[in-house]
Write a structure and sequence with these properties.
binds 5-amino-5-deoxy-1-O-phosphono-D-mannitol; globular; eight-stranded antiparallel sheet; Rossmann fold; Glutamine Phosphoribosylpyrophosphate, subunit 1, domain 1
């Protein structure tokens, strides 16, 4: 079984019981998985409550808050193989129920370990790889090791990826933890310490964090933190994050997705704060490279495609966009003269990390564009550009897409300046104009929302939709289609508008939604014939365009966005109506856009 999961652990002298804190943390980690949940606390002995289902459902049945104890661990799970059942839910325990463990990742050698432990008389209850960790710890404790040594030995036997938190009755004040390739952060509060897959899980308790690195393990109590790597003690690197707990909450919106759509002006403002030196360093790296390769998955890939179109139009170089999971087919093109721009909101997407690991062996330079400080991707890269969009909880990426596109634009502008393609005056003018972007986006969101809501009601029963565009608008159409698919479960296809006549148009019948991303650029006239051919077959034409477009009179609905001061506004403002259209279509269909079926926010498996 493999998982994408969230874990949280807490030891506190400040609270009567840690169970409510763990439950609150789980609710903020549900984006990492939500098919089963469980909590273990240690009072006089270990007490465990767990079951299959979303947190609210399990809580209704088991009243998770009621667990006693000032120390505990908790888990929310997302299974990709095998049924989500109560037995397979974490925490997992050893034979004597003296050890409990939660884990995110994959123990690749769990079958060998399990076989060994069975030969020593251990009895297993679940089908999971995780359970071996609890039994292995028990095995070393039985051999007379103290808890720390038993934990060290346990971890040293594991192959694969893991973020682990472990409770043992043999050492009731401490939580043991270890990290390799799966994210794990420690929160340092007054009289209470935490470990979690992500900072928002404990952000209401503390803003002081230690981002653990691969190979680190240790323990914490309510007042002590010990970390080591390769047997040598490591001084905790405590940093203070500036996110408020409210930023990680819904802030009055019915869903995180809508809240995050509305947060885009603020997120863009933060992205604009990036230091020019950071952009300059990357621009120089790009200009000194023979080849530039963009890589990412999902929404981040669409942002990369925008970057690809933008750089292709400006630079005379070999430039290639590659979906990260396809990396093995492109490796031979990548060498020491290549800079790879790896884009990942989470910085933890396994496909991206594997791509990066592969191209590093070929001496390529790595630039990361990510939202998560200290993420695995950031640590692998020689240069990192942080979007600073704040935590994104909704599974559907929204504010991080516009942040990534803005980052691509900033990078392109600086690169053009260094290449002598624009003068200093032009450079300053375009940079200054971008300062207005957040307030324009804020206006766009407010003005298009009512129309998006109305159109969503009209298309909510559609089985399929097309998203059409030309040239550099195609990535935005692709992103619009992905949003509709993933949260409204309506089949949506994006392709270059001129392709319709080669097949797809056969699907068009009365009321079939055809959404055109068609700003007033050089392709406007050519798009007109595509609009007409779709309309002639009964297609419902929905347009994203700008004032006085020749297309408006042919459309059933038009989102007319402001004529942009700079072409760099376009992808960012054009995606807004498409994000809202998907959101309202999902809610009109009675779906929860924050928890789309079969998806997890961070995909740490390949
Ligand atoms: O964290 P990342 O940006 O690497 O995630 C990549 C994709 O998994 C992600 O964009 C996914 O496609 C989202 N569900 C899109 O809304």
């Amino acid at each position: 079984m493999i998982y994408v999961c969230g874990i949280i652990a807490c030891s506190s002298q400040r609270h009567q019981r840690v169970a409510p804190i763990l439950k609150a943390g789980l609710s903020r980690l549900e984006y990492r998985g939500y098919d089963s949940v469980g909590i273990a606390t240690l009072d006089a002995s270990l007490i465990i409550k767990k079951d299959a289902g979303k947190l609210d459902e399990v809580d209704k049945k088991l009243v998770l808050d009621s667990l006693p104890g000032k120390i505990g661990i908790a888990h929310t799970r997302w299974a990709t193989h095998g049924p989500p059942t109560s037995i397979n839910a974490h925490p997992h325990v050893d034979c004597k129920e003296g050890v409990a463990v939660v884990h995110n990742g994959i123990i690749e050698n769990y079958i060998e370990i399990k076989t060994f432990l069975i030969s020593k008389g251990h009895a297993f209850k679940s089908d999971t790889d995780t359970e071996v960790i609890a039994h292995l710890m028990e095995h070393h404790l039985n051999e007379g090791e103290n808890s720390l040594e038993a934990f060290r030995k346990t971890i040293s036997s594991l192959k694969g990826t893991y973020a682990i938190a472990l409770l043992t009755a043999s050492d009731p004040q401490r939580i043991y933890f270890a990290k390799k390739s799966s994210p794990l952060v420690i929160g340092v509060g007054e009289g209470a310490l935490f470990a979690a897959s992500d900072i928002p899980a404990f952000l209401d308790q503390t803003k002081k964090v230690v981002v653990l690195r691969d190979g680190e393990l240790g323990y914490f109590s309510s007042s002590e933190l010990y970390i080591e790597k390769d047997g040598v003690q490591v001084k905790p690197r405590i940093t203070t994050v500036n996110w408020t707990p409210e930023m990680a909450q819904k802030g009055g919106f019915p869903h995180f997705m809508l809240k995050e759509i509305y947060e885009q002006p603020l997120a863009l403002e933060n992205t604009l704060k990036i230091r020019e030196e950071s952009l300059e360093k990357v621009a120089r790296l790009l200009l000194s490279s023979e080849k530039i390769v963009f890589t990412a998955c999902g929404t981040s890939f669409h942002a990369s495609l925008w970057g690809y179109h933008e750089f292709l139009r400006k630079l005379d170089k070999f430039i290639l966009p590659v979906i990260s999971s396809e990396y093995s087919h492109y490796l031979h093109l990548i060498d020491e003269n290549t800079t790879v721009i790896a884009v990942s909101q989470s910085g933890e997407t396994m496909d991206v990390l594997k791509f990066v690991a592969g191209v590093k062996k070929r001496d390529a330079k790595i630039v990361a564009i990510t939202n998560v400080v200290g993420s695995s991707l950031a640590r692998e890269a020689s240069e990192t550009l942080y979007m600073q969009a704040g935590p994104e909880i909704g599974v559907a990426a929204t504010k991080t897409f516009t942040g990534q596109v803005l980052m691509m634009n900033l990078l392109s502008i600086v690169t053009q300046y260094f290449e002598g393609l624009i003068t200093h005056q032009e450079y300053q003018k375009v940079m200054r104009s971008l300062a207005e972007l957040p307030s324009i986006i804020s206006r766009v969101i407010r003005t298009v929302e009512p129309r998006a809501r109305r159109i969503a009601n009209e298309i909510k029963r559609s089985k399929s939709a097309f998203y059409l565009a030309r040239g550099h608008n195609i990535p935005v159409a692709m992103e619009g289609a992905l949003k509709l698919k993933e949260i409204a479960y309506i089949h949506a296809e994006a392709y270059p508008a001129g392709e319709s006549k080669h097949g797809p148009i056969a699907l068009v019948e009365p009321d079939f939604p055809v959404i055109f991303v068609a700003p007033r650029d050089e392709d406007e006239r050519r798009i007109l014939s595509n609009v007409q051919e779709m309309k002639a077959r009964g297609g419902k034409i929905i347009l994203v365009t700008e004032p006085n477009s020749i297309l408006i009179e042919h459309a059933h609905h038009s989102f007319v966005l402001p004529y942009p001061r700079s072409i760099y506004y376009r992808p960012i403002q054009n995606i807004i109506p498409l994000q809202l259209l998907s959101y309202f279509t999902a809610t009109a269909r009675g779906l929860d856009p924050d928890k789309p079926r079969n998806l997890a926010k961070t995909v740490t498996v390949d």
